[in-house]
Amino acid sequence: MSLMLAEIAEQPAVLEKTIHAESGKLKKIGKVLREKDIDLIVLVARGSSDNAAFFGRYLLEITTGIPVSLSAPSVYTLYKSKLRLNRALVIGVSQSGEGADINQVLESAKKSGAFTLGITNCADSTMAKIADETLLIHAGRENSVAATKTYTGQMLHFYLLASILADTKLEYEKIPEFTDQALNLKSQVEEIVQRYVFMENCVVVGRGLNYGNSYELALKLMETCYVVAERFSSADFFHGPLAIIERRFPVVMIAPHGVTRQSNIDLLKRLKELHADSFSITNDEEIARLSSRSLLMPTEIDEFLSPIPFIVPAQLFAALLAEAKGLDADAPRSLSKITTTI
Amino acid sequence: MSLMLAEIAEQPAVLEKTIHAESGKLKKIGKVLREKDIDLIVLVARGSSDNAAFFGRYLLEITTGIPVSLSAPSVYTLYKSKLRLNRALVIGVSQSGEGADINQVLESAKKSGAFTLGITNCADSTMAKIADETLLIHAGRENSVAATKTYTGQMLHFYLLASILADTKLEYEKIPEFTDQALNLKSQVEEIVQRYVFMENCVVVGRGLNYGNSYELALKLMETCYVVAERFSSADFFHGPLAIIERRFPVVMIAPHGVTRQSNIDLLKRLKELHADSFSITNDEEIARLSSRSLLMPTEIDEFLSPIPFIVPAQLFAALLAEAKGLDADAPRSLSKITTTI
Predict the structure, then answer these.
(1) Ordered domains of chain A (ranges, CATH)
(2) Which residues in B lie closer than 8 A to residue A74 (C-beta atoms)?
(3) Which positions ≥6 away from B120 have C-beta within 8 Å?
(4) Model pTM?
(5) Predicted ipTM?
């Protein structure tokens, strides 16, 4: 078994441990943020961490009403701009905590008066030293180049933060169990990947809270399967990208039952007319019925809590497709685990 | 000649006319915004307009220091959230002014106390009626499905806005002339597309002020050439996507001389090691030397003013490649000009 598959399986335990170990810090952080009267949240990340931040953006705006901006690091690092961030919460997200540009943005934000928070897997990292407060993912060492358990660990921290900032109970304690249920789909995923062994291109679609997941699955497919995987929201897809769809072009959809349902159904109907191939990870009967292939998730998972459990079969899909293609998911060509860009 | 090629050629005149006709409004808008003491700018758009907004984000943050957020429309339209926007400037960008979700975000923002601005090509559009103020693109009717003259017209408006918000002279009056010079490269582009007639996938790379352009060229290649075109910043590329690169995989780069130079050079060197194919639109000798093919832009174009003139050869590339592939750039399969999504 690949390291990647082993680490995918660790996720329920990592999530459980992270909730247990980190919830205590939140009251203190919540108090500081309320005193500061935060009116903007800025998220800073790259790679998989950026996809987790992309999810965090939706979750935080929806639950707290505070506008969120996904930072463009080069504005700080290359263009040397000083942004007005005196009432901002700036959150760096990095598995290793050693992304040089991410840390540079945090330092610049601190100087501009922002409150800074690090979300990282490494307690003694540079990020943990720079940030005013740190939320740790308790994932242990991540050995696979393709991030899985730290990605969902980062997502979890956005639920913890949202619950403090919105001052409501978000039921994120259910997520480890839902994630465990998702792992049960492994043998079904093993069968489904056979259909995609010769796939060279695809489009991954998600929307709203699951839009970040479409970026993450696309990245996993690029890293481990060398598939040229585009990612779009089902809304943006109609603004141009639809033109690349031809007969049997594969579209993968992460589409739970919920408010994004109609938009995903509209897209699936259009894809059917175009004779495209669609594979959906869903817990909605109609979406499954309209798809060429589907993987059924438990119906009890509400859309609001779906992003973490729904990425699990997607991670399995990438890891098992790599295997079926005869590739080594643990050793993607040309990549290294820690990337430092300025 | 396709409508798309004809409209590409109109750009210097459209830009000139837009500067002339709209500059007068800016003093008034500037006064309102200063009175309101804006501390956040939110941009709302889809498709090509979203790519123009992506450029606007960099330009506005770099010149004004005001944080910018690219809006996620579904937060408003599907999740029905009310964001705290009482000190925000919210800018809708839409060629037709009829994007239903964009307009819904503007209405919601207005209710939250934001000052709203529309950037559109249609003076009597719904957007122009909703927004507190409107900046018009004077492009005349855009007949091609693939947006070109309205895309650069939208970009231009961000220069006009930035000059008012930052209260500095930005020399955007030079842009129409630079854009005219860029059109002179047409015969060179005609030769270069021959090399890419059978290209089915590619990656488009840009960074900073030209990052939005990489999204725009990728979209044009999808719409008009049915090429599966990924888009990345040269920084993000090292975080995973590099794995898809194999011998002769084509990478197109929009890379002016300037602060993003080193990062683009680092990527080109890595691509050379991997025997990838690189085609760069540049005015930097070293970048041209490291690329498999390049298109040389005038050296007098400063990076700060490069995004509009540098997209012109990219538009020509897409339009002429479509022709060389035997496709009709004016009639992309499955698309229509106005897209209304919720």
Answers:
(1) 3-170 (3.40.50.10490), 176-324 (3.40.50.10490)
(2) 58, 207-208, 211, 233, 235, 259-260
(3) B92, B93, B94, B95, B96, B97, B127, B128, B134, B135, B136, B137
(4) 0.96
(5) 0.95
